[in-house]
Amino acid sequence: MKAGAVVEEGFIFEEETQLTVLKTSLFFTGDGFTVYDPKGTLVFRVDSYEPDARDKGELILMDASGRCLLTVRRKRPSLHQRWEGFLGEGIDGKKPIFSVKRSSIIGRSGVTVEMYNNPGEDFQIEGSFSHRCCTIFNAAKESVAEIRRKVDASTHVMLGKDVFTLCIKPGFDGAFAMGLVLVLDQISDDYEDDGLQVDPAANDLSP
After folding, report:
1. CA angle at residue 122 from 116 to 125, to 5 degrees?
2. Which one of 1, 17, 121, 174 is at 20 to 30 Å from 137 when CA atoms are compared?
3. Phi, psi at residue 17, to the nearest 5°?
């Protein structure tokens, strides 16, 4: 497998790539995502319109054709809101390949991503996902992906939070990055229920 691949090497970009992420909902029964490359071609999608999808705490990332790439599932019980990622569809008989958890229940330390197959190659996510302003760092503290508010290229107007940019640095697995976005979206929702953010100290609304 190509270096840097976590979910699938076909989603590792040779150049820095800005994906556009659109968060959608249908009749308020669930959340979904569609992700497009700079040419407007569909890259990923997430459909979680089943009424019990959020109750199960499980989301599936698919490619444009509907092939299941990654399943993320909330681990219960979990004091620190831990989520785990599994290759393909479902978790039966599989071992997780990574876990995501809040570094502290209340604090500025962000979110930690632990890699089960590559100990020591963990990632840290800092910033505010609820404000669409956060960065994924590797173990060497290098930025490998960023989430930013999207600005309309023609009008220079900042778009709503349901449309944002996922910037993937060269050599980083875009499918893995999108899997982390799914977890951040869930953690962010839970924090907002408690009146908190992924990083409670982050209140920068700039793009």
Report:
1. 125
2. 1
3. -130, 130
